[in-house]
Write a structure and sequence with these properties.
Number of domains: 1
Number of helices: 9
Strand order of the largest sheet: 1-2
Number of strands: 2
Order of helices and strands: HHHHHHHHHEE
Strand content: under 5%
Radius of gyration: 17 Å
CATH class: Mainly Alpha
Distance between the termini: 37 Å
Structural class: mainly alpha
Shape: globular
Length: 205
């Protein structure tokens, strides 16, 4: 899959094997599904918020509308799997990943918009990479489901990146990408205390 290869080359690191070892444990499957559902819901919310905040660009609004619809569909699919498996939908805390990744976002416009799009691209790229790497270690239902998400996640990454370059140009985006991708690498590779879909490497209890 060419899009997946591009994403793997785009990110500064791959998901560590240690995270995969934690994620594939049977006792973590329910938590993985629950956090995945929350991630899909948040992704839809992020797209809708961008549509409300930055009106006027029809291409952006169309892409964000489609993205939100797809993320909500994924959310529904995860919930169906949870219900089928008897996994309760409970409140859990999000991991540090998204909040830490957003810390370098600039506060003035249009820089804030550009950085928000870059963060969106990185999160979608990591999700796609992680789905692909984890899928072979899961049961048939989850493997097939995660592999079915790769095409849309890859397109979401490309859409976010395209829109960022449309706003500020490729040179500026490349400069900002370096900042965010270096931070993202440190979050993915460093120790974490809670297992989540975007968490780092788990610290042994």
């Amino acid at each position: 899959m060419n899009a997946l290869v591009r994403i793997q080359n785009f990110l500064y690191c791959e998901t560590p094997d240690a995270w995969i070892e934690t994620a594939k444990l049977p006792e973590n499957q329910a938590l993985l599904l629950l956090d995945h559902a929350n991630c899909e819901k948040k992704a839809a919310s992020t797209a809708i918020n961008l549509m409300y905040r930055y009106v006027g660009d029809f291409e952006m609004m169309h892409k964000m509308s489609r993205l939100a619809r797809e993320e909500l569909r994924h959310y529904e699919q995860v919930m169906q799997i949870m219900q089928k498996r008897g996994v309760a939908y409970e409140q859990i805390t999000p991991c540090r990943y998204a909040s830490e990744l957003r810390k370098p976002v600039r506060t003035h416009e249009p820089a804030r918009f550009v950085d928000a799009l870059i963060v969106g691209a990185i999160i979608e790229a990591r999700s796609c990479e992680r789905f692909a790497k984890l899928a072979p270690f899961l049961d048939d239902e989850l493997r097939d489901f995660y592999l079915s998400l790769l095409k849309s996640e890859a397109r979401h990454y490309e859409d976010y990146l395209h829109l960022a370059k449309k706003v500020s140009g490729s040179e500026e985006v490349e400069k900002r990408l370096k900042v965010f991708l270096e931070l993202e690498k440190s979050l993915i590779e460093s120790p974490d205390n809670e297992f989540r879909f975007h968490s780092g490497v788990m610290v042994a209890a």
